Amino acid sequence: MVPITLSVLSITLRPRWTATAEYKKNSFSNKDGSISINNRMLTFGLSYYFDIPLVAATKVEATGPELAIPEPVLAPEAVPEAPPPP
């Protein structure tokens, strides 16, 4: 079994920019415990999103026919066991 620890922090700096930090720790050992390896990584990232439109969100009102919500129907009751065949 390989225990893994992972922590991620992501912060939006501006509408199109995001900063990310990630910490990951992996531990490996053989069956008798004589060899143990610990791997620790710290990663930083900066992302820019090209396709995000920079327009204000607008409220959209739905228009069209009202949909009827069907009433719930009770399930039929259990049928008693039939007599064994002759």
Notes on the structure:
This protein is an all-beta fold. It has a domain at 4-48. 0% of the residues lie in helices and 43% in strands. It has no helices and 3 strands. A 3-stranded antiparallel sheet has the order 1-2-3, with no helix packed on it. Strand 2 (17-29) and strand 3 (36-48) form a beta hairpin. The chain is flat. The model has no long low-confidence stretch (mean pLDDT 79).
Brief summary of the model shown:
This protein has strands spanning 4-14, 17-29, 36-48. It is mainly β and 86 residues long.
Query: What is the overall pLDDT average?
Result: 79
Low-confidence segments, given as residue ranges, are none
By DSSP, the count of extended strands is 3
* Beginning-to-end CA distance, first to last residue: 60 Å
> Hey, roughly how much beta strand do the residues contain?
35-45%
How much is the radius of gyration in Å? 30 Å
Please estimate the helix content: under 10%
Supply the helix-strand structural class: mainly beta
Strand order of the largest sheet: 1-2-3
Spatial shape = flat
What composes the largest sheet?
3 strands, antiparallel
N-to-C SSE string, H for helix and E for strand: EEE
The total count of helices amounts to 0
